[in-house]
Amino acid sequence: MAEAWNANTVMSSPPVLLGVPFDAASSYRRGAALAPPRIREALRSPAGNNWAERIVEVVCDDGFEDLGDLDLPGADAARTQIEAAIAALAGRPFIALGGDHSITYPIVRGLGTDRSSLTILHVDAHPDLYDEFGGDRFSHACPFARIMEAGLARRLIQVGIRTMTGHQRDQARRFGVEQIDMRAWAAGARPHGMTGPVYVSIDLDGIDPAFAPGVSHREPGGLSVRDVLGLLDSLDASLVGADIVEFNPAVDVSDLTALVAAKLVKELLAVWRTAS
Q: Distance (Å, rounded) from C-alpha 99 to C-alpha 253?
């Protein structure tokens, strides 16, 4: 098991960037496995600069360590390898570049965090709480059902939901999930009381497709990029890790979604860079 999380580790170790190019658990359309290198290109594009909005340089030699992409086999073995790769980080903060949303389950399994205190902040159009989807219990529509039934988190806070089904509503009640759907968000609801270790999982289809069209499951009526940046700005040194998932370069428009993903990477890095 990975070394237990502590604030000193999070604040003193440079964050890690790790590509997880896996989309074998996708429904409808694959392509998210192609995302990690495209996000890196946008992150280092000369069209922008290396600084985050907190006015700290994050794309620099000591800003993060890029470990490249995992070389992943078939589905079952891939989950084991993803979990082992996260455990091997021994508590270092990281951003995983997906890949489809199924990768979040083995990532959370690999955390060295005390699961009894972990809060997951999940941005998505979909709750991803199906018990199974298309006969697959490890589908990208199911990771948070697996996480919660295994007791891997104390709180799951979902923001941006706008595709709830009756089954997923029942699952949310079963697991005590805290949801701020888009109607509640528009009415002013926001997450609160996020203390202790926090893990952030950002499905890019949580953002309205006007801002991030490069996703396989476009769902109008979502969050703006500024909304998500505001959520990240509310975080502090309790952040232990994050993933950015479901970017599909095959359906992107003028690299807009790649740029959004890179922006999110920068602002996540800035959370650690400015931790006090």
A: 18
